[in-house]
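INFO batch 0412 | record 1 of 1 | parsing
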Amino acid sequence: MSEQTIHRRVTVDQIDQMRDASHDIGGNLADRNEVLVVVASDFGLRVGELNQLKRSHFRLDEDSLLLPADIQKDYPTQQSPTSVTMEIDPFRLFNTKRLLQRYFDSEWWQAQEGDYVFPSRESEQMTTESIRNVIEQLAVEADVSPRRSDGEPADPSEAHPHMLRHSLASYMLQDEDTRLIDVRNRLRHRSIATTERVYEHYQKR
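INFO prediction complete | emitting tokens
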């Protein structure tokens, strides 16, 4: 199996460990980093979507996220993505809504100048590189080793945001009533063939 086809994923318990690590590290960015882990894990967003996410995209009173087409991955075909409404925490795993409400009400977030959900110390918007660095840092701090699809041992430093997208597919498929089409819809793959190729072997494992 080549490096390009190796996928990494973690369990919900390991995600909780990463959430705890955000506060163990502490600092003004602790809440932001916990929200970053939870939003990536709940919605399966790509890193380029996470850093463009805005407060105005959330409809907390409707338990939903309206993900605009222009921040989603655009495919080199005429089948470009459309805006999509996503339910917040449909699997009741992360208490995402309460976490977001607390975060958006915090003095720290309200003191930020922009509308981006994930600002940095230097800018109103984290870069994709800084998001990758935070996820890796939290996994290392929590000593969370991802599970690799090739069965080889993994190191916490291998953690990355897309790992949380794979993790979403993994825990969805632990439910025997979940179909691959459900995973496809949550992850917004253009084709069900992509979902089958990447995740069919995750079922009931």
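INFO post-check: Strands lie at 8-9, 58-59, 64-67, 84-87, 147-148.
INFO record closed
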